[in-house]
Design the sequence.
């Protein structure tokens, strides 16, 4: 098992830190029993997972050298969300990014923005990435705004590439490059349109 390290971040008594072995039971019981239907829709996940599936994912997240699983912990100690840097390619210095807030009551409070910006900064500042990319569905405009605010730029659209009970949606590809992140941190760029 590789030893990954990352800071522990705190904002308004919320903690963002790497997942630990002892987090699994809370991670599963607080978020997957049941999985919020909106989370499943916005992430392209199936509507339910058995314990063994989630355990396998969680354990591989702890062990995989190319994945950092960060957990958002409430002031009361509940696991409310996750942010992931994965598919790290050390030759290209690139990786994929994703985020999920598991409970609708936590959305719209700035936590997703804070998590996105914090993990983005970790990816460039600590991991030394050149490129961080993601994809987001067109029927998730809140997430698109968060990503644009964090400096991600649209690079392409896979039209009608996803479908759910409400119909088809586009899969929007977005990324931020190292020099764009540096300019953003220096205050030269605020939001990409």
Sequence:
């Amino acid at each position: 098992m590789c030893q990954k390290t990352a800071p522990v971040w705190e904002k308004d008594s919320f903690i963002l830190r790497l997942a630990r072995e002892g987090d699994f039971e809370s991670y599963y019981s607080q978020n997957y029993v049941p999985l919020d239907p909106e989370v499943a829709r916005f992430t392209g996940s199936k509507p339910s997972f058995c314990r063994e599936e989630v355990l396998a994912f969680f354990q591989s997240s702890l062990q995989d050298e190319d994945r950092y699983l960060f957990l958002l912990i409430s002031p009361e100690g509940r696991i409310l969300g996750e942010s992931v840097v994965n598919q790290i390619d050390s030759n290209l210095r690139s990786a994929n990014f994703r985020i999920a807030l598991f409970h609708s009551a936590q959305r719209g409070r700035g936590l997703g923005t804070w998590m996105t910006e914090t993990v983005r900064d970790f990816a460039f500042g600590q991991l030394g990435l050149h490129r961080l990319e993601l994809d987001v569905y067109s029927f998730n405009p809140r997430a698109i705004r968060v990503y644009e605010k964090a400096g991600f730029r649209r690079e392409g659209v896979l039209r009608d590439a996803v479908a759910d009970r409400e119909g088809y949606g586009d899969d929007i590809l977005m990324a931020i490059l190292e020099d764009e992140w540096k300019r953003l941190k220096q205050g030269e760029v605020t939001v990409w349109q």
Notes: The beta strands are 9-11, 14-18, 67-73, 79-89, 94-101, 131-137, 153-164, 167-177.
